[in-house]
Amino acid sequence: MIKGRFVMRKKYFSPMIGDRIIYLKSVASTNSYAWQLLNAEHPAEGTVVNCTNQTDGRGMQGNNWESEADKNLAFSVILYPEFLDIDYFFALNQVAALSVCEFLRETTGEDFKVKWPNDVMFENKKIAGILIENNLRGNIVTASVAGIGININQTNFMSYMPDAVSLKMITGKIYALDKMLNEVCVKMNDYYDILKQGDYNFLHREYHRFLYRYNEQHQFQKNGIYFNGIIKGVRADGKLLLADEYGINQVIDVKEVRFVY
Length: 261
Fold this sequence. Notes:
- The protein is of the alpha+beta class.
- Helices cover 25% and strands 31% of the residues.
- The protein has helices at residues 30-40, 91-108, 167-171, 177-196, 200-209, and strands spanning 5-8, 20-24, 48-51, 57-58, 64-65, 73-79, 113-115, 119-122, 125-137, 140-150, 217-222, 225-234, 240-244, 249-252, 258-259.
- An 8-stranded mixed β-sheet has the order 1-2-3-6-10-9-8-7, sandwiched between helices.
């Protein structure tokens, strides 16, 4: 049975992200819970599943997301982007990443970057991760779940590469999680509205403005071989454009290369 504490925000003419929030004390994965909810009913678009203790959070390619209980944001947003052109499905990732970056920038006044495809970085340390999962019917995205984890008040992390960082570690302040959740939901709603208007070009430009190591030469690893490369951009389908040290352009899919720090 799907259970949780529900909170409704003020009513608007159309559903907003965060109008309905399901608060859970503990769950393995908010994304998994959101899909269970979708299979059991048809929750309003913008419904948020939030948990204070996510015990088995999922990242891309089966990676785990570490989150200490009662210290961070771990939530998933249910969306129905049937309007989305399948050729631009990566725009959902851009919406989530830009929302997190803008939220963090406005909260701290510091600069944050999107590490392709779905991590958010402060300098060379990871502060947030995003996992977008879609349900397709032919070429139509009938439902999406956007899972987002943001390090807020946690200060001790296991050994990861790249190293992890939190808002508290950056500013020294302790943040109210409910307030932080509401603020990032407002940002995400703004960017999702831009997506619904079909302004893919704006989202693409903004994503590149925040892109980590964009047009900079850095070291990468592919098939166990280290090489110098320059990120030239990200295609509409989400694949990375990377020029190697010989000036040869490569089209890179997720997990084909590793960033070297």
